[in-house]
Design a protein that fits this description.
The chain has about 575 residues and is of the alpha+beta class. The protein folds into 4 domains: about 230 residues, Rhodopsin 7-helix transmembrane proteins (Rhopdopsin 7-helix transmembrane proteins); about 90 residues, Beta-Lactamase, CATH 3.30.450; about 80 residues; about 140 residues, Heat Shock Protein 90 (2-Layer Sandwich), CATH 3.30.565.10. About 50% of the residues lie in helices and about 15% in strands. The chain is elongated and about 145 Å long.
Amino acid sequence: MQVSLYILILLITICISLSLAIYGFRRYSEPEMAAFGYLMTFIAVWAIGTAGECFFSGIGMKLFWTIIIYTGNQTSPVLFLIFILLLTRSGTWFPQKCIPVLFFIPAITIFLAGTNELHHLLWTSARIVETTIAGQSLVIEHGPWFPVEVVYIYLILAVSLICIIRVILSGPGIFNRQMVIILIASLIPIIGNILYTNFGPALSGIDTTPVLFSFTGIFCGYAISRHNLLEIFPAAYEQIFRNLQEGVIVLDHKNRIISLNPAACKFTKLSESVIGEDAISALHSWPDIGLLLTGSQQDIEIEADFQWFHIRSNSMPSGHSGKDGRLIIIQDITIRKSLMRDLEKSSADIQRTNVKLSLMSGVIRHDIVNELTIILSALNLIDPPHDPIEKDLWSGSKEAAQNILKLVRFTREYEEMGLKKPEWIDLWEAVDNEGVMVTGDIRFENLIPRKTMIYSDSLIRTVIRNLIDNAIRHGGIMHVIRFSMEKSESGEILICEDDGKGIKDTEKQSIFRRGYGENTGMGLYFIREILSVGEMGITETGKEGCGARFEITIPEDLIRRIPDRQ
């Protein structure tokens, strides 16, 4: 038995590897970390076999521990590949069902190591040499199977490196730095193994590969924990890129195509063979695409093969060459265009129908007004009868005719509601103009700030007029009708109040119902309908005996004030 500096290094390697294995198994639910845990476990087995081979001096014991070494060094590269495949999400081109096949050659090699005395396929002879670092070390002469297992192991490691480099070339920013760390960590033990495999006798049989693999584990653990490599991984970007429903074409600073996803191939009828070609030449069937590439337009709509596409161009800065590329986004808007055409057609049909109905109702309304005018004129020409019953009939007929005339005029205003496009109206001016209808002993106050603009249907003037008329008709004895403004959480409040008799608490909701009231029963109902079209509301908050108070809530984006010019 012997103790050397090399054995101490291997013991440290075993401790590091087992610690990293425990770290991986603690996150066993994550496939990548489970593979990492198994990888570090078999690196520890490799280091244990190497330490045992160095510790014992008899050639029989050294050959026994060599079998343990083969168990570790044949399994670890395959587990490393599995770890990289899972880490880089490369399962799309390397199916998981093929993974068990990877252990076929290592299993044969381990079996041959255990039975080498029967066939000498793995090594033909073995001898002990004295070394400065490792003491008595075992040096073996390789047999005919050795090149097979070496080529296989190097092939496994090469595939691992390809997966890492592939992600580095396709991933952005911080992910590149993460994968570079893992790439460097992967190269360290590979170089060490190449030196041991090809220059073993010159190194006196000292295999540093398990030691270097432990450093690989440290670097991989750092990359995973420090940068949250498993939570946000760049390989997902490629999957997202390929699965996007929008077509994406990536151009370099010379407008050459450097990448395009399947959706772009489908829309443009191109294939990935156009990569490297000039975009304008490749997309010659879409001549308007040049407007995007020259920067004269940022987005266009193109019709091709009975399909409509919305194409958007975005500048794509390059962190390497310093020259900007371009990202072309293609969206199929055929269905949207079809719906818009149907909507426009339906809208036109509805508009034509409304025009016909308006014309018809206007003619009928005109005829009704004429007939009512004749009736009222005749009633005015007839002296009121002296008989009380006949006088009541005469008065009732005249009042009914006048109410019908009001209702006809109401239908004209109601018909116009919501048909006219909203506009910015000077609210102070509108209130002031309608205030002229207040006469007699009633004082009218307009406290709305000047240049207060409201975005509304022009019928807002009818709302103001009806509020004033309602106060005069139903307010009883009063001295003032006042309009003012107050701030609210959602915008502002237009207030119309008086000092008349007010409204009973039991009637505050009923007054806005159609048909309620002493006159036509349409005034406040009509006001509420007009305001609802413009996303405004109205409530009555006054106190009975103190006067009515109507509050109209106006959203913030529908009210503004024009500052006075200095």
